[in-house]
């Protein structure tokens, strides 16, 4: 009896190995529904067969950009199920925030529901866990380890390349309109990047689960730090801000020039974090050179 | 007699001054704080903060409040409708729609002038309302209804844009919630001269405007050109509103509340009414804003002043409704009477034709669709598994369309109001409010929870409608106005939620906009049962539906207990609405459109009217669902939105002929 069950177990294991081997033999067909999944897959060197809102992704996340062969499957909130089914994916990644999808997505392929933000515990470790979990679901553990090691060494190089003189605390904002900003603090991707670079965030206040606080720019008075403005500026905001006395005063008071950073996905995973770290290091170095 | 208004204004003023004093002294000594108003001490951060943000904000709110109040008084006076206000007439919606379009497709316009775009949006919208109601000499009822329809229509379009471009438009959401944060004196400089001039102009028209309080014919006989007077005064009101909206965003209900309070205080004559309303509007908005600024932490960012006044204003409006002495306005002539003569030719044949269209539509729409390789026909490519995804959606849309159409037919017949429908009287909005509250408080998880909370919301709004209208025997205008108030509350809640910028919001938005996306065979089954039970219930009451449109007196003489039969029918249509709203969202003009179309096809008797409307409604939703999935493939536009966009066009056309 025991022998029999051991035999059965052995057979199952063998079958499992075989199936995963065959799975790996041909490229896996993966679909990523949240942008943090898309960038992570691309970071792992896997091109998803289907991804959401490609045009918007390429404008807001930018890099790593989605290759042309990935099919656009529509909105993140409502991926096109017919198209998804037609793609016959092997695995689907989805954010748990979109819980209503899950049951039906499971009819198409196995689903991994995972996200970095929303529970208010985003840090470098959480990013690694996120990447590892995704990799484990598709048998790419090695690639994940490589991505993490590579990213960590990049971050260390960036940290080492920062000017030796002490860096001012940074205040990372993204303009929503000419008078309101998102300030990024605890739980944010920007905070994780700053931690890795050894730079302090000047924002002392609370943030929501996505790592930002929405405030009027009058809330930025009294905060000592260099401004980092994450692009894009909303239409018309540039013209307004040039005239805005409060904003001009804030810049003057900060004692530093404003660092403008091209668009980075504020709710991204490891690739976005490294990208922001690279951009901010560049900006700081350039400013130092001037 | 004068004591009451003076006392109230004095009290309000005291409250504002007290909060101001408290806020100023919390920052720095009072005399220094006052000095910061006149000149900025660039050495002191607090002085800068006060002089660049606090003081401008105070004056901006005062001006905006006053301007909106004047606009409100003018609109109410001209339209002789105590519920008319800048927010009910679509100006704000038009302005925000204009900004959205410009943000997405012509950012250079916004770079030239943000306010100009908003202003143009508001003006164009109002011009549209005017144009559509011109033929009826800007009749009050028609203007209000047109405003409402345009509000809903642009609302639907905005939602589609928002769903498709969430990142780009998130900043506009803050503006839409009416945040009064200031960073200098530009807004005061922009608004003050304009508001003074427009208000001055309003005072020039006091005399002819007062005459409007008499009956229309009375005013006419005194030599007042009604259309011209209405045009000028409404134009002034629109300008005032647009300026405010352009500079600080959408601020709801001050324009409604200030005149209403003034009236309740017993101020009757127009001149004092205008002045008192202006002061009350200014103080009321300022007090609200000051209190919101005093909220702890980030709450002021999440509950913005504009949305807060709107949320407070809706209950106020509901409370005011029973107090209004509504002179029985000449009812909107119904399409009902219009089409009677030339209809006999149709009949059975056209019912068969519509039914055949429906079957054909189902067959075509379920097999022809865009797929990965472009247009495909299932008969040719044989991918029948696709039906598994399509059929539940198409069938549910079809059923929802039928239910809404039946509900709409009932409501239009019993109210004798061709513009009434479940979307318009607020049942749909009530359902949505129930859903939102449950979603964000976490009380109801999963689909069943959503159904239950939606039902509770609908039941409460039904209860409100019934309680507020029972005395007046469900007089059409009142029922409609109750709906406007409930919808306004929904809008306020939605605005507050969206302004927070929580990425999860878009899930909610997608759902709210009425998509069949979440439909499964289970929901299909539930919808089917609801449709069968409720629709067959309606057919038991076709006799009432035949008699009620004849008018209260005739119905009573024929032995129908009018109030009770109206109540029963309203209750059924509420249930129908809930079942449909859960699938296609609170906005789709099917309930309004299908009964109209059915009548145009020539079905006047209740039973035929119901059947034809249901068939037309089904076909419309079926088509809307299919089109929504092809239009921007692979992105999906919710069926409810497509129906609104198509239906809105039809309505605007219909209104103009009304």
Task: Explain briefly what this protein structure is.
The complex is a heterodimer of chains A (290) and B (658). Chain A is an alpha/beta fold. Helices cover 47% and strands 14% of the residues of chain A.
CATH topology of the largest domain in chain A: Rossmann fold
Main sheet attributes: strand count, strand direction, barrel closure of chain A: 5 strands, parallel
Determine the most extensive contact between two protein chains: A-B, 59 and 59 residues
Please mark out the parts of chain A with pLDDT under 50 across 5 or more consecutive residues, or reply none.
1-23
- Give the beta-strand count of chain B: 2
Uncertain segments of chain B: 327-344
Q: How is the quaternary structure best described?
A: heterodimer
Q: Distance between the terminal alpha carbons of chain A, to the nearest Å?
A: 79 Å
General shape of chain B:
globular
Q: If helices are DSSP runs of H or I spanning 4 or more residues, what is the number of helices of chain A?
A: 11
Q: How many discrete structural domains of chain B?
A: 2
The CATH topology of the largest domain in chain B is given as: ABC transporter involved in vitamin B12 uptake, BtuC
Structural class of chain A: alpha/beta
Mean pLDDT rating of chain A: 84
Mean pLDDT of chain B: 80
The CATH class of the largest domain in chain B turns out to be: Mainly Alpha
The share of residues in extended strands of chain A comes to 5-15%
Shape of chain A: globular
Membrane topology (chain B): Multi-pass membrane protein
Pfam family, one (chain B): FecCD
Transmembrane segments (chain B): 54-75, 87-110, 116-134, 141-164, 243-262, 274-295, 301-321, 351-371, 391-412, 424-443, 449-468, 480-499, 519-541, 567-589, 609-627, 639-656
Protein name (chain B): Iron complex transport system permease protein
